[in-house]
Structure formats: structure tokens, C-alpha cells
């Protein structure tokens, strides 16, 4: 089966074709980062309109890249949530229209399940079961994964996601949007002993996280220490913030592996590309005799490949008719194994 994946949950328009026997055949992506940069974050209406503009040209590019035509596509998978409602509806309508016109199945995919399964696009791919850390601009979540659709939430951020805190810190440090990569680059120049930021919720048991207070601490430090615009101080603040976030994520993952007895850790989402986080997780995993799996860097952020793969694994959930499904809020642990609802 060849599955066309369509991702439009936020500010990336991604399409890909996944073959259930040959693997990923091709993928294309358009990022709206420059479009939203002047606003310091994603403007939902602008995101939706840009998806409308990009979907048809990107599909044409993908078909040219793979040497296929639409007649070679056996099913369509589209991101149905969670995400920005207008952006989701754009991709969902496009995907359902293609499926209806071709008379092929359409599968509504959970965005975070796509991220969670993305490392399976790589070689070697992780085997079930494993613990997954999903960290992005909208989500910070630790999940015990026994199989596709068999998820148990272990912990999550009680307020801001880690990626959201990165973006806010970048804004406070006047680094622009998107903030995560900019903060990480600047942090490389910072001194490790200048500031000591709090590590939220490490002093209490459990796997839940919180980054709102850390974000406020950055604000107060910027107001107190960076009034003169000194570049070294700005780098020191970025370093202290990044180390605090990384310490929290690594310790929560260590606790999750200990609690579940798992020996495999999957890390996905945009923050999963952070080099300091990867280095620290590698140290922690090695000490526990565990392995860490990531998608390739280009698949850490939103993309069509992860949606195509998830759709291929969920073909049993293909929906009849022409209904367009889009859910701005949709919990990961509400999912069931493929075909369970039928």
C-alpha cells in the first residue's frame, strides 16, 4: 500500500508518500517561519491561508520527486488533530477530497502519534515496547508505548510546553522566531556557571513537568541583568535556561525508564533536535543500559512523512463517506489499536 500523508496542523505544510513494503518514497515540506517571524509566533489565519496556497504545488512536486502519479496512491492520511482548527481543516478537506475523487480510503491521524512513530522511519527502528518523550512547541509528554494505539500517559507539562518556553525565552532575548534553534545556538557561547536557574518539579516525585515558572525566571533575569544589552550576558541567560530545561527532561526520562523497566527511549518533536538534550540523554541511557532513538533532524519538526507512516499503520481505521474530521484538542491516550473501534 502506498499512503499519501498530509500534515497541516500548524505552520508547516508537509506531504509524503510511504510504501508499506519499500518505506518512505519521498517527502516535501514548506515552512512558514518567515511568514510569522514579524509577529513573534504563529498567526492562525495566515497559517491556514498559506496551507491553501501550498498544498497543490507541493503535491505536484512530490509526485515529480517520486516519479508517481495519483493513480499509484492507495490511501490518504491527514492530520486530524490536535492543532490549529483552521489549519487542520485545510489539510483534512484537501485529503478527504483527494480520497473521495479517487475512491480510496482516508485515515484521520493523531498528530502526536505521528511524532511518536516517526523514529520508525529510520534504520534501526525501535521495537515495541518503549518509553517516548514528545517535546515540541505545543506538547511536553512522557508516554509508555506497548504498541500502536496502546499508550499510557506517564507525565506531562502542567502548563507551558518546553518548546513554548524556548520560544518565549527567544522573544525575551530578542532572538526572533522560531526560538528553539536560536536559543540553542546562543547557549553554546554562554558560560555554564554565571546563572543557576530553577529546575521545576525535580524536588517532588512523579513525571509531570512545569515550565511556566522557569519562563518567568528568565523574564526577571533579563530585566535585572540584561538592561545594558551585553551580548555575553544574553548568552549566559540562554545557557542557564537551556541547561535547566534539559536537566528536567533528562531526569524525568530517567525516572520513566526506572518506573517502567523499559530499555528503549524514543524522543520526538522539535525540541528533540536540541544537541545538549541529545548528549545528556545519551549519557543517562548508557548508564542505565538503555538505547535512545530519534527521527532524523528534518523529521523532528512537523512533516508529512510521519503522517504517512502513521496512516499506513492505521489503514484499518479508514473512514467511509466524505466527513471531514478535525479536532483542535485530542488526547493521545484516547486512541485505541488499529481496527479496535470496528
Account of the 3D structure:
The chain is of the alpha/beta class and 342 residues long. The chain has two domains: 2-117 and 299-334, ATPase, nucleotide binding domain (Nucleotidyltransferase, domain 5); 126-294, Nucleotidyltransferase, domain 5 (2-Layer Sandwich), CATH 3.30.420.40. The protein is 41% helix and 19% strand. The protein is built from ten helices and ten strands. The chain has helices at residues 33-37, 44-66, 85-102, 111-117, 162-172, 179-187, 212-225, 231-260, 275-288, 304-313, and strands at 2-7, 12-19, 23-31, 75-81, 106-110, 130-135, 140-147, 150-156, 264-268, 291-293. The strands form two sheets. A five-stranded mixed β-sheet has the order 3-2-1-4-5, with helices on both faces. Strands 8-7-6-9-10 form a five-stranded mixed β-sheet, sandwiched between helices. Helix 5 (162-172) packs across helix 6 (179-187), helix 5 packs parallel to helix 7 (212-225) and helix 8 (231-260) packs parallel to helix 9 (275-288). It is globular and about 60 Å long. The two termini are 21 Å apart. The mean pLDDT is 94.
Amino acid at each position: 500500500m502506498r499512503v499519501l500523508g498530509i500534515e497541516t496542523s500548524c505552520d508547516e505544510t508537509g506531504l509524503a508518500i510511504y510504501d508499506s513494503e519499500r518505506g518512505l518514497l519521498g517527502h516535501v515540506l514548506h515552512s512558514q517561519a518567515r511568514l510569522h517571524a514579524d509577529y513573534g509566533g504563529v498567526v492562525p489565519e495566515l497559517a491556514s491561508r498559506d496551507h491553501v496556497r501550498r498544498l497543490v504545488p507541493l503535491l505536484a512536486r512530490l509526485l515529480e520527486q517520486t516519479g508517481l502519479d495519483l493513480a499509484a496512491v492507495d490511501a490518504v492520511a491527514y492530520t486530524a488533530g490536535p492543532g490549529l482548527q483552521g489549519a487542520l481543516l485545510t489539510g483534512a478537506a484537501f485529503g478527504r477530497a483527494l480520497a473521495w475523487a479517487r475512491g480510496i480510503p482516508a485515515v484521520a491521524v493523531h498528530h502526536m502519534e505521528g511524532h511518536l512513530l516517526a523514529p520508525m522511519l529510520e534504520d534501526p527502528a525501535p521495537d515495541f515496547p518503549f518509553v517516548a518523550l514528545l517535546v515540541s512547541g505545543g506538547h511536553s509528554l512522557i508516554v509508555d508505548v506497548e504498541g500502536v494505539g496502546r499508550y499510557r500517559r506517564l507525565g506531562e507539562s502542567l502548563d507551558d510546553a518546553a518548546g513554548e518556553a524556548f520560544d518565549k525565552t527567544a522573544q525575551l532575548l530578542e532572538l526572533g522566531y522560531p526560538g528553539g534553534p536560536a536559543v540553542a545556538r546562543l547557549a553554546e557561547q554562554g558560560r555554564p556557571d554565571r546563572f543557576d536557574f530553577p529546575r521545576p518539579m525535580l524536588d517532588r516525585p512523579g513525571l509531570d513537568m512545569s515550565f511556566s515558572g522557569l519562563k518567568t525566571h528568565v523574564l526577571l533575569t533579563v530585566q535585572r541583568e540584561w538592561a545594558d544589552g551585553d551580548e555575553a550576558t544574553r548568552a549566559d541567560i540562554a545557557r542557564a535556561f537551556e541547561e535547566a530545561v534539559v536537566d528536567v527532561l533528562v531526569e524525568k526520562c530517567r525516572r520513566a525508564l526506572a518506573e517502567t523497566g523499559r530499555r528503549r527511549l524514543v524522543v520526538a518533536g522539535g525540541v528533540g533536535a536540541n544537541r545538549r538534550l541529545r548528549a545528556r540523554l545519551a549519557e543517562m541511557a548508557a548508564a542505565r543500559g538503555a538505547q535512545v532513538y530519534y527521527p532524523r533532524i528534518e523529521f523532528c519538526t512537523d512533516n508529512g512523512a510521519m503522517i504517512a507512516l502513521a496512516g499506513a499503520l492505521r489503514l484499518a481505521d479508514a473512514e467511509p463517506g466524505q466527513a471531514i474530521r478535525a479536532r483542535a484538542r485530542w488526547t493521545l491516550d484516547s486512541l485505541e489499536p488499529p481496527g479496535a473501534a470496528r
